[in-house]
Amino acid sequence: MMRAVRLERQGPPEELKLLDLPDPAPAAGEALVRLHACGLNRRDVWIRQGLYARIQLPCVLGSDGAGVVEQAPDRKWIGKRAVIIPCYGWGPDPKVQSRDFFILGMPRQGTMAEKIAVPQSMLCEIPAHLSFAEAAALPVAGLTAYRALVTRGELRKDEHVLVTGIGGGVATLTLLFAKALGARVSVNSGSAEKLAKARSMGAIAAVSYKEKNWEKELVAQAGGPPSLIIDGAGGDGLNNLLAASSGAARIVVYGATRLSPSKLDMPKIFFKQVDIRGTTMGTDDEFRAMLQLVERARIQPVIDRVFPLSQAVEANRLLEESAQMGKIILDCTK
């Protein structure tokens, strides 16, 4: 038997129950991983709140996981530290996922557990400089950030990049990745504490989006407008991003925590010749390329707090409040 945190039904964090469940039985081609750490994602909140597609409950949530391989078809994997690619079934076209694309943690068992069985092809070795907790901070956020910056954003060295909503897992890793790739990075946030932290991480400009016409202050601080913007909020703030952007800028959108804009400044899009590009998750090859960047640049993800698995309710409540700087992690051994 193993301990696992299962969502019984939609509702508040208290609907997440710590249970004893049967150990997963690996199918042909699958490996069994004893999990040491699990990272939380906004997706877990959306499923719990009924804001996600094709919800099937009860289910063990969690898409980010790192641990030690206990069983595998290729015995060379046994005993190795591994981080798990968080999605499967992307399909043959690297430009867009197939209809069979799924993310771990609903409907398939996720990583809020002591053990998980996944296809061996989803295993990657953890870079030597990372702890289990740091590795578990990477899968969903790191893959999303890498594809947004490199594949969809076509980041260029020395380019000015604006990362919105600094503090979230994707945004924080986007800042770290962009810096490692030679970009100049600006950020915004509604938290003075998070803006100060971003400056300490190398941001050249940091402004509060609560201020009217904040985009003008950002351009002034940075000495010019951004030509690449990575955004996970959407909403009416998209108009501020259009106002902040340079001519021929690319705006890459990976989420919509503020939903759709009530109006959109269309003239700025065509007069400025701005590209708005969507992105979500990424391919297995992009995940491996992200890990190579982390290893080469010795990037260490920012972790806000580590909770024991037994305190998953408290951890998910903190995530729902969006008060964290970086990732919230569960220690699956406690």
Order of helices and strands: EEEHEEEEEEEHHEHEHEHEHEHEHEHE
- Radius of gyration, in Å, reads 20 Å
- Report the sheet-strand fraction: 25-35%
Q: Enter the CATH topology name of the largest domain.
A: Quinone Oxidoreductase, Chain A, domain 1
For the secondary structure, the number of strands is 18
CATH homologous superfamily identity of the largest domain: Medium-chain alcohol dehydrogenases, catalytic domain
CATH class of the largest domain: Alpha Beta
> What is the end-to-end distance?
15 Å
Query: Major sheet, described briefly?
Result: 7 strands, mixed
Domain tally: 2
CATH architecture of the largest domain: Alpha-Beta Complex
Please tally the helical runs, counting DSSP H or I stretches of 4 or more residues.
10
Q: Mean pLDDT across all residues, rounded?
A: 97
Instruction: Enumerate the spans where pLDDT stays under 50 for 5 or more consecutive residues.
Output: none
**What structural class should be given to the helix and strand makeup?**
alpha/beta
Principal-axis shape: globular
- In helices, the fraction of residues equals 25-40%
